Amino acid sequence: MILFFDVDGTLWDYKNYIPESTKKAIKLAQQKGHKCFINTGRARAFVYNKELLGIGFDGIVSACGCMIEYEDKVLFNKLMTRDEGIRTMEAVKKHDFKAILEGPTYLYMDKPDFAGDMFGQKVIREMGERLLGITDKWGEWEMNKLSCICDSPTRDECFEELSDIYDFMLHTDTIVEMVPKGFNKGTGIKEVCELLGCDVSETVAFGDSINDKEMLEVAGTSVVMGRAPEEVKNLGTIVTENLEDDGIWRACEKLNLF
Question: Which has the closest alpha carbon to 1: 42, 38, 30?
Fold first, then answer.
């Protein structure tokens, strides 16, 4: 079996707390011969936490299926072209979006755009030298996807302009994730299975939010964390306990993964 784990709200909470039972469950599953992958919307540049990576995952699917690593080797990496990147930035700037471009090595943002924004300040604090300026590096971005504050009255016009190259995931009315068309966490699972010669029916996905929808639908078995909204719980083969209540451990136990 191949096990795929969302990060935020599944492996750890908003304070980056990972239960010891979660670490132990993953280790025991690996000892039984199962492969364990992170499957996250975060670009690879934003997956760096030593405790998280120290769990020892077999692979990482990042940027909503745009990049795949297995045993420390990059097997797949979908990058936006220079022309696509420039067209994107010209459009989002015209419509007054504030963007964070997300890639395998760096994130890019113009810091003044995020003055007073909690998430923007978190990115600035945590990324350090791996955070570069959009304007400073104009046209040189290495990006898989982007996220934007989209509190503009012409928001939908911007979406229409870029609809041929992106799928849009609205997290709130003012926050959008823009992913290359046809890519998501579910396509990431399919690509891993193809690369490793495994049938999709032999996969288990663990998630907690609506951005895990495709992953939970594609996987042979889907586990939804206890604090997930009802619309997400309806996608699960099983609903487990909350993250901090040993949710992953209990699900692995029920599924006889160790």
Answer: 30
